[in-house]
Amino acid sequence: MTAEHRHEAQATLTPAVCEHGVGGARLQLVAVALTDGPTTPDDQAQQPDVICQLRPSEARRLATRLLELSDHAEHPGRR
To answer: Is residue 41 part of a domain?
Structure first.
C-alpha cells in the first residue's frame, strides 16, 4: 500500500446528509474532505478527493486531536 497525500482539508455540512438513529432521531453528519484543491487542465497528478462522513461526536474527537497536534507542532517542547 502506498501513501497518498492531499494538499487541503475541508469540513462541511450538507442538510440532506444525515443519519437516523434509534427512535427516529436525525443526526446531521459532518463531511471531511481531503483534496488536492483547484486544478488546471494539464494537472495530471490530481488524485480523487477522499471524503469521510462523521457523526458529530466523531468530528469533535477529530477536532480535539487536531488541536492537540497543532499545539504540539507549534511548541514541540511543551506538554
So the answer is: no
> Number of structural domains, the chain?
1
Give the three-state DSSP class for 57: helix
Return the C-alpha cell found at 21: 438513529
For residues 71 and 79, what is the distance between their CA atoms, to the nearest angstrom?
9
First and final CA of the chain: distance in angstroms? 34
Q: Which one-letter amino acid corresponds to residue 52?
A: C
Euclidean distance between CA atoms 8 and 35, whole angstroms:
5
39-79 pLDDT, tens digit per residue, is 666 666 677 889 999 999 999 999 999 999 999 999 887 76
Residues, the chain, total? 79
pTM of the model: 0.74
Euclidean distance between CA atoms 79 and 45, whole angstroms = 38
Which domain range does residue 27 map to? 8-36+47-74
